[in-house]
Structures are given as C-alpha cells and as structure tokens.
Amino acid sequence: MGVDATSEIVELRGVEVVVRGVREGARPILQSVDFRVAQGESVGVVGGSGSGKSTLLRLIAGVVSQGLHLQGGSVSVFGKSILESSAQEREEMYGKSLALVAQSLGESMTPHLTVLSHFRDTVGSGVANEEVLRSLAEAGLAGEKYLQRYPHQLSGGERQRVLLALALIRSPRLLLLDEPTSALDVSIADEVLKTIKDLQTRHRFALVCVSHDLGVVSQIADRLVVMAHGQIVESGKTAQVLQRPGNGYTQRLVESIPKLDRRVRQAQNNRVETVLESRELTIFRGESTRAIDSLSFEIRKGEVVGIIGESGSGKSSLLSAICGLVPIESGDLRFRRDQDLATTLKRRSPDLLSSIQMVFQNPDDSLNPKCSVARSLGRYTNASREEMVSVLSSVGLDERFLSRQPSQMSGGEKQRVALARALLASPDLLLLDEITSALDVTVQAAVMKTLSNLQRDLGVAMILVSHDIALIASFVDKILVLRNGQLVEQGTSAEIVESPRHEYTRKLVSIARQKSVA
Amino acid sequence: MLGNPLASLRSQRIKPLVLFTIVFHVFVALLAPLLPLASTDAQDSGSLLQGPSLEHWLGTDSLGRDVFSRLLHGGRPSLLIAVIATLISALTGIVIGSLSALAGGWLDDALSRLIDFMLALPTLILLLLISSFFGQDPVILSLALGLMYLAPIARVARSTTQTLLARDFVRVARLQGAGNLAILGGEVLPNVWRVVFTEVTMQFTWILLAFSSLSFLGLGASPPTPEWGLMIAESRSYMTLNPILVIAPILMLASLVLAIQALVDHE
Amino acid sequence: MKNLARRIFFALVTFVALAVVSFIGVDALPGDGCTALLGRFGSAEKVAECRRANELDKPVLARMGDWSLALIKGDLGYSIKRDLPVADVIVPRLRNTAVMAVVAALIAFPASILVGLRLGRFPQSRLGRVTNQFSVIAMTLPEFVIATVLWLVLSIWIPIFPGVNVVPSNATILELLPNVWLPALTLAAVIFAHSMRTMRASVMNVKGMPFVESARLRGTKEKITVRRHIVPAAMPPVLNVIAIDGSWLLTGTFVTEAVFNYQGLGRLAIDAISDRDTALILPIILFGLAVYLIASLLADALVKIFDPRQRNAE
C-alpha cells in the first residue's frame, strides 16, 4: 500500500475471530482481516448484519465481545498490541488516544446520571463547566440547559451529540463510531453526520465509522471498506468504490441503494373506484395528544400510496386506525364508499376485516415464535396447502418453508411470510408499515422487488409507510408527507420528487438525493 | 402446549446428577409402599435410638421405628400435596392472569387488585390457622396452599399476556378475525406457558417446603405419618444420641429441593 | 408526589379491606376467647356467661366496630385466655423479634451488597462460585433445616452459642443477647443468600449494558465506573428484596423462633394459634399486613432515588 508506514495508527493483520466453543469448520466471525488506518484518515466500513463490521470496530478498541475468541493475527493501535495491554494501560488510552461511540440506540448514556456528571466522570471531577459547554457546543448543543438533563430528557439526536462531545473532549487521535445514525430520523441523522464531518475537519482525528448504510458512510469517509461474512471484500477510495465496484457483493450493495426516482408506469384507466377515503380524520394518542390531526386523502382501487414521516409523525397511528386497532377521534374514514371505519375490530364484519390487512415493521415480532409457517398461514385463513404454496411462491419462497419455525428464518424471510399471510386473506387494501426498515439493504431491495411484482400481478391497493423517500418514490403513485400528525404536503410521486413545495419535503428530498447520488 | 417446556428443558443440558436425584425421588415416592421395607409404624421397644444395623439399616428412632423405611416414605405426603397444590395454583393462576389481561377494563382492574391483596397476605400464619382450626386435613391444606400461592403465578401470567397482546403477531391474528378465545388458545397460552413454567417449578418447591415447615411445627402431617419435617422435629431432642435421625431426613429434603432448583436455575 | 399519595392511599385501602376480611375470617373460626379460656369441654352455660361478660355475644359487625374504634385509640384488645391486655402480651415479644431482626439485618444486608457486587463483577472466581453455591443452598432449604444444622454445629458439636432458649419473654436485652445469635444467624443466612444473589445477578446484568462499556471506552476510571455507573443502576432490584426480606424478618420468623424457643412474635403466634387465643391472632395478622405494605411503599420510594426516570414520571 502507498501509505507511509509511520503514519499508521491502526494495523490489523490476518485477524481471525471465532465463536468460542464452536466445533472446527464453523464459519468464523472475522476471517483473515487486514485493516489499516492512517493518521487523520476517515474510513467507512460497510456491511450487512453478520458481516463482522462491529466486531472489527470493537477489536480496534481492544474489546473482544463475550463468547468470541481471537484465534489468530495481530491488532496494533498506536504501535501497541492493544489486546495484550493491561487494564491500566487501556484506561490511559481510552478517551486520550482513542474513543468509541457505540450504536445510537439511546442506551450508551448512564440513565441515572446528568450530562454534566457524565463529563465529570470521564474527565475528572475538576472539569470546568466552560470546558464542558464548549465541547457540547462544538457537537452542536449550545446552552447550559443541557448540563443538568438526564438522558431520558434528551432526544435521540441530542444523546448522540452528547456522546460525541464526551468522546472528543480529551482530543483523542482516533474516533470509532458504530452505526452513529441508525436509530435517528432521516433529517436528524443528516445533521449529526454533518457535525461529525465538521468535527473531523477541525480536529483532524482519524475516524473509523461502521454502518449498514452505504449512504451514511460515504458522506464522511475518504476510504470505504466493504465487509461480507467476516471478510473484507473490497477496499478503496470512496468515490472509486461507489462508481466502479470491483466485487460482486459491493456491486449489489451499491445497486441496492434506493435511487430517488419518480414512478414511471402507464396510466391505468380502471382506477376510478375509491377504496379508502379520509375526511378531516383525527386520531388521539393517549388522552389528548393528536397523533393525526384532520387528515384528508383518498386511495383508489389498485393505487399505491406512500406515506413519508419520521418518528412521531403519526404514520403508525394512521395505519392502526384504518385496520381498526385504535379508535378514531373525529372525522370520517370510509372503506369502498359505503363502509364506515370508525369502528374498532370487534364491531367489524369478517368480510371487512379480511379486506384490510397489515404487515408490521419488526420481522421478529410478526410471527408467533411457537408456530410453523404453515400454522401461521393457515390458522385463521383456513387456506389449503395448495393455496399456501402458491402464495409463498408469489412472495419468493418455496414449499419447504411451510414446515419452518420462525427461529429458522432470516428477517427477510419472516417478512415475506408475513406478507404471504396478509395476501391469503385476499385484501383490497394492504397496509405496509416500514416492512423493510429492519432488513439489510440488499434484502430490502429484494423485498421491494417482490412487492412491486405483487402489485403488478394482483393490482391490490397499498399504503406503504416509510421514513425513506428514496425507497418508495419509484414504487408509489402518490405520496403524503406527514409531520407531527399534520399533512405537510401531498402529490404524485413525480410532483414530490421533482418539485417539492414545502420546506420540510424539500429537506427530505435533498437528503435523499445526496444519499442516492453518493 | 405441554411439549414446549419439556423441549426447553432438554435443550438446557441438565446435569446427570440433577436428573438422577429427581428420578430417584420420584421412584422412591411412588414405589415405597411396594418395596420390601419394614413397617413405618411398628415400634420395636427393645431397640430404641439404635445405630445402623443389618436389621435397621439406618437405625431406629425414639419409638423404635425403622428410620430407613420412614425415610423412604417420608417424602410422599409433601410431594403429593405439593403436586396437587401446584396444579391448582398454576392452572387457576394462568387462567386468571391471562384472562385478566385479555379482558382489560374493570375486570382487569378488579382482578389485579385481588392479586395485590393476596400477595399482601401473611401466608404462613394463615396456613397455621387453617391447619390448626380445621384439623390437619391434606385436602384442605393442599387447597389452601394452592389458593395462597396462585397470586404470583397470576401476576406473571398477566404481565406476560399483556406483553404478548401488544405484539404484532397477535394484532395480525385479530386482523384475520381471531376472537378472544382463539387468541388466548392459539397465541397467548403457548407463549405464556414457557415463561410461567419457571415460576411454577419454583412454587412447587415453596409449597413443598411450606408443608414440611408446617409438619415441623406439628401442624402439617400428623403423627405417626412418616414425613421428613415431622421426623426432624420429633428427633431433635435425640440429636446428640443419634444424629442420623436428623441428618438423614435433612439430606433427603435438601437433595430433592436442590435438584428441583437446579432444574430451573439457568446458570 | 401525586403518585406517592395515590400509592399510600391504595396501601391504606388494602390494609382496611384485608383487616375486615381477617376480622371476619378469624371470627368465623370455630372457637373464641371464652372457649379458649374454658377449654373445649367448658359447659354451655359457663361459655355463654363468659361471652356476655366480655360482650362476645354482640353481632360480628358491632364487635368489629368496637374493636376498630379501640384500635384507633391505641387499644389492641384483651386476651381473655391470658387475662392480660393484648398490648402487654405482644409488645415485649415484638421487641424480642425486633432485636433478632436487627442483628440479622446488620449481619446480612451490608455484607450481601458488598459480596454480591464482588461476585457480580467476577463471577468466575473460585471463591465466588463456592459462595454462590452455598447461597443457593441457603436460599432453597427451609429455615428449620438451616436452624437445625446451625444448632447441631454451633451449639452441640462446637458449643459456642446456647441452644434452646430458656430466657423469659420479658428479659432485658442484655440477658437476651446471647440467645439471639443462633436464630439471627439462621435468618441472616436466608436473607444474605437472597439479597446477595439478587445483587450479583443485577450487577452481572448491568455490567453488560451498553452504557457501562461506553463509560469505560471513553476513559472513565474503573473505580468511578463501578461506584457511579454500575452500583446505582444495580440497586433497585436489591432494594426490593431488602424491603421484602426486612418485612419477613419482623413477621415471618415462626419456624426459626420455634426451633430455638425464642420468645418473639412468631413463637407467640404459634402459641396463640394452638391456644385458640383469637384476640392475639388478629393483631399479629394485621401487624404482618402493615409491615408488608409499608415495606413495599418504602421499596418504591427507595427505587426512585436511584432512577431519575421514575422520579420524573410523577
């Protein structure tokens, strides 16, 4: 490699990590990994779940997760073999030489301590408030009000910024980030990424950022490393990897990034019949909070409507109300013109119930862990084996899956089964709540493809909820943008993508464009 | 429904010693009356408080009864009562807990409060009262024990059901037209059972020990029934003369409850 | 604060409801003070006369009213059988149980937290595993077994402590003290095992949480990580156990006191039950209820100190 050897601060050679106690021949977590980071360099590590990317990052910090075992190779950080260093040496190193910010699921701050206490514990009780304030301000949190707050009083983005400030307050030369934005809303994530980039240009620390999202890392990394099944499959300058991926997996990964694109499909003239109509619809969350505030829209037969919204936008409440899981506060919600949906489940006729089906977000929650696929599919639909096999094949699974248990399936497979179960009820309206957001990018692309085929073949009306405008823009006819329960904007896919009118929509579109160009 | 906990036990790699101990106790409890043992009540006034001999393998107690025979019979009363009481508490507890969560509304409020009340009751003193005033009747005692210990199970079943009801696969079942009973049988119970199983096993030991303690206080099994707690109580005065009288039933009781404990301990 | 007031209110409601149930329940038991005094074979006239004299012939609700009015004034009632005010019988016994409970708590709780923390941090150490195994045993075995074994070892084989208690219930604390040790050790073994195991499990759980590793990886000193990040987060479950075990020390010691013939409340309860002295039984039940309810309230309040989320939820 052309990098000057003396400027290297991280060097991993031939690293092999295996699961402890597993018989020989099992697949290792990391397999002959060579990895280097130079002074001041910014490296992005991308890969799906199980690719070993987080294990790699933690290894650089000298942490081998419980149950894992370093079988071979060497890990050297700042010229020292970090795994052999004593606890005291590490305590010296953390914070001063390197710092790691773990996944942003909101659990990385100590729940019973204030922000200020976090700083005092990290730097020493003598730390000046001014220094803390300066550090917080650099990370984008200005104001003394944050000092006395507890973690639960901060938003996800604010917590991530506090953790960044904590990691950087003692000016380490190496910052390790694990999925810095995965738990954040799109617009917040974008701002946090910008802050990280700013901080890096200002302080010139080396950065290793791990993410499942190529769009995220390519924004802040000079160099990309692509991992799959515990191996590094590709490495190179960010632009180069994105434009000319040399490896098959990287290629698929790049292709799977949703491209912001409007929907192109021939107009269909049979779409006059209204399936769902909402007038001034209001739904409460709890006693008095408006989850959805006087929302009006319409869905015609065979139409696909996308709803874009971040957390708290009310999108899930809307879907729950349509299928009768939560009651409607006021307004009018009609199905096929004549059926009032202002009733909850128990009052709905069996026919109405089966006409509206929903698939939920979390694949691990969508199937009863105690039931085989055949049982999950057939229990309430009374479908015959032939029907099950045919619907499974329409979602891209074969007959063998009938006897599988949920624990034997991947997330993508579980979501496909959940989709198949919804289809067995022959619905007129299919509600899909972020059904791909928990899946790997490549799997997500495949599920979207299946969805697209289904829509073409069955012509069922769908509502597709997502936080990612790029993911659905090319698939839906119409887009509603929701924010805090209010309809910000609605229009055809082309209108929203090409000429968004509202400022918020423009921001979302521009972030999506940035990522899909990357 | 019943296959699941057994499967989960199988996957937990039970230590052979634990399994052996439990199988041993079950065997002994079931077969003791059929084994060629000395009578548990026959008093040999010629040999009181004897040490181990060929005739009396573990010696004799203060009335000259055969300790070995009484020892093998001594688990039967507590095991029988524990099995019945645990069945009562587990079945009613699971039904009350999951129905309460499923029904919601005022019924749930009322049942939860009832469960709170029952948890606050001083269990042992009530048992002492019941046994003292109604005679040491095994039927009444197992009924009382079963009712007294159902609250913790009902509570676990209720909270587990509540968590389950919020899960997506249950909501989907509702969308597909499943009624409350179908949800209870198809989605809730198979998943509740697994969580409650640990609780039920622990309760089994508690009930067993509660009954033994009652016997020790003279209010559980009534003499001359051989029962470990009672045997310990009867022989404590002769502990210096013949420690086996106390140590043997302690070892039997300890090995049984420790083995059951090890069965559910996940470490 | 609203929440706390609500909880206190519910505790009071629970207490009153269960008190009513207990009164009626105890009343429904076959026998009362007069049959207890005169024995089962007392003649019908004598029993009736005794009942009239002690106003036991009033309807149950009226007696419950009288009784609760007296209770509010601090009068616990009168034991016909013992011919003494209930308070005079109960208070010295309560003192004895309290002395034993305090000794047991002082032996067990501080040690259990320290040992539990240590074992939670280093669960694989050999001493840790042995201690843990012993705790499982102490937790699983009934008190009468632990008590008997302790007696066998510490009083008969190695005569350190006196075995059976011969001190009267109204002895001074100094006279009482030598006899406290064996029962207190028995109780201490049980509650030590309980709270130590809880602390250990809680520390092991908290130790693996992301915020602990996160603190370490930004260079927080180990001592501070343990003291300020791990321990406060690990305390809530232990506080609950301490509260429940604490109330058990005052109200659940029948068996231990019976083994050592220790003249406490538990011993008294057993005597009262076998004497059918219902006037004593009811206050003892209510005392148990009250202690349990107060302990649960206390545990809730203590947990809030360690968890800002719950503090703010009010």
Helical residue percent band of chain C: over 70%
CATH homologous superfamily assignment of chain B: MetI-like
- The average pLDDT value of chain C, as a whole number, equals 85
Instruction: Give Rg of chain C in angstroms.
Output: 24 Å
The sequence of SSEs of chain C as H and E is HHHHEEHHHHHHHHHH
* Unreliable spans of chain B: 1-11
Approximately how much beta-strand content do the residues of chain B carry?
A: under 5%
**Shape designation of chain C:** flat
What is the correct CATH architecture of chain B?
A: Orthogonal Bundle
Output the radius of gyration of chain B. Answer: 22 Å
CATH topology descriptor of chain B: MetI-like fold
Helix content of chain B: over 70%
Shape summary of chain B: elongated
Please report the total strand number of chain C as a whole number: 2
Structural class of chain B: mainly alpha
Across the major sheet of chain C, the strand order is 1-2
Largest sheet entry of chain B: none
End-to-end gap of chain B: 25 Å
Largest sheet of chain C: 2 strands, antiparallel
Written account of the structure:
The complex is a heterotrimer of chains A (518), B (267) and C (314). Chain A has helices at residues 53-60, 87-93, 115-123, 129-138, 156-168, 186-203, 214-220, 238-243, 248-256, 315-322, 350-355, 373-378, 385-394, 411-424, 441-458, 469-473, 493-498, 503-517, and strands at 8-19, 30-38, 42-46, 68-77, 80-81, 98-101, 174-178, 206-211, 223-228, 231-237, 274-285, 289-300, 304-308, 330-335, 339-340, 356-359, 429-433, 461-466, 478-483, 486-492. In chain A, strands 6-7-8-3-9-10 form a six-stranded mixed β-sheet, sandwiched between helices. In chain A, β4 and β5 form a beta hairpin. Chain A is α/β, with parallel strands linked by helices and 518 residues long. Chain B is 70% helix and 0% strand. In chain B, α4 (76-103) runs parallel beside α7 and α5 packs antiparallel against α8. Chain B is elongated, with a radius of gyration of 22 Å. Mean pLDDT of chain B is 84; it is low at 1-11. Chain C has 314 residues and is mostly helical. Chain C has a two-stranded antiparallel ribbon with strand order 1-2. In chain C, a hairpin with a 4-residue loop joins β1 and β2. In chain C, α7 packs across α8 and α9 runs antiparallel to α10 (222-251). The interface between B and C is large, with 33 and 38 residues.
